[in-house]
Amino acid sequence: MKKTxxxxxxxxxLIYYDLRDDTVRDAVDRRPLERTVTTSEIRRDPLLGDSVxxxxxxxxxxxxxxxxxxxxxxxxxxxxxxxPDSSYDVVVFENRFPSLxxxxxxxxxxxxxxxxxxxxxxxxxxQAGLVLEAWTDRTAExxxxxxxxxxxxxxxxxxxxxxxxGHPHGQVYGYPFTTPRTALMLRSxxxxxxxxxxxxxxxxxxxxxxxxxxxxxxxxxxxxxFVPYAAHWPYEVHLYPRRRVPDLLGLDADAxxxxxxxxxxxxxxxxxxxxxxxxxxxxxxAWHQAPFGPLEEFDGVNRDDFALHLELFTIRRxxxxxKFLAGSESxxxxxxxxVPPETAAQRLREVASS
Length: 354
Known about the structure:
Layout: E1 2-7, E2 13-18, E3 41-44, E4 51-54, E5 90-94, E6 106-111, H1 125-143, E7 150-157, E8 169-175, H2 180-196, H3 201-212, E9 216-219, E10 223-226, E11 235-241, H4 253-270, E12 283-288, E13 309-314, E14 316-318, E15 321-322, H5 327-332, H6 341-350
Helix pairs in contact: 1-4
């Protein structure tokens, strides 16, 4: 992998990740952009104890542009985009309309490929491996920022999820706090560790799923994927490396080598869940990593107790129907799942690549 860092016309950082070591990236952003001004603010809810990012400048962000005006495609001639060069393998840049910025963290866009009409599932294993390297590098770089306590790499895919740009891409958020979902995991981890005299809850969850087998979707030498026992979403898969590590930086060479094959297979199965002729399955793919900030409030837990894993899920519950977060889910955070986890796992095994 070759990494080349440059600056866009408004001062934002852009990084090329290339498969070839001899690739030269010297294209200049020729757009007449003014310096980006953001208004991100973090406000804490005193009743729930969580935080909300208020970012009014995002109201003016690009919304479903035509394909020939896509800001994530490479620049061609006088059609200038966010990527100055005429081609790229993987590119990462600071979001022009960030939810988090300055002392409130950082937001980056990750473009998986220059092919506007592709999706992550269309990538080769070599390309998917390069994306993994980019995620890992961004996790390392953002962890050094004083404004960042937790790094979150994720992909929103599909208009149903709320994606406003059709080009295959994801994002990296550097939060200035430990997110509420991670905090819940850490509290459960700490309570289990104390109650069992030191046993790791993540290890037990994975071992229990492997022993049961009914919800296991895919198993390889270095990764295991399963539908969790209490899945929140109609089709939801959790992907764990077999050797527990706290973050992407901890993955060894064997796990990195095998990841593209495993992950691409999962994504391709997701697109086959609802049968032939159905539109691509909308999904969210979310990496859960240990925070880099202090963990004193989670008694007896350290970063190495956390288990890196990816959660992949869709809001589509059946052909042509979405799972809406209505009263119980949105009002009380109590999910009601229409698809039994065992049924979802069986379907995801049925649509395996032949």
